């Protein structure tokens, strides 16, 4: 299976990045591209560039692609479509 790229994130999905300090940041399909990251970039290549704004950590991030949540619909949360990095399994 080829590596997931930024352009593979669906319009109704987000790239969710969770730090060990519990900070969670979500990026829509174009957010990182607007920050200058090419859309063809493999998501796994972004992980080493991450730094938590809260605690300053540079490693230990859980990175997943998840469905966006519609606040008007109260349904159970779907599991992530893809897990890019999981520090608990590395």
Overview of this protein structure:
- The protein has 90 residues and is mostly beta strands.
- The chain has one domain (6-85).
- The protein has 2 helices and 4 strands.
Radius of gyration from the alpha-carbon trace, in angstroms: 13 Å
Task: Give the helix proportion (percent range).
Answer: under 10%
Separation of the first and last Cα atoms: 19 Å
Contiguous low-pLDDT stretches (5 residues minimum) are none
As laid out across the biggest beta sheet, the strand order is 2-1-3-4
How many H/I helical runs? 2
Number of strands: 4
Overall geometry comes to globular
**How many strands, which pairing sense, and closed or not: the largest β-sheet?**
4 strands, antiparallel
Mean pLDDT: 84
Provide a compact summary of the structure:
This protein is mainly beta and 90 residues long. 9% of the residues lie in helices and 22% in strands.
Q: How are the secondary structure elements laid out?
A:
Layout: E1 13-18, E2 24-27, H1 31-34, H2 43-46, E3 62-67, E4 82-85
Antiparallel strand pairs: 1-2, 1-3, 3-4
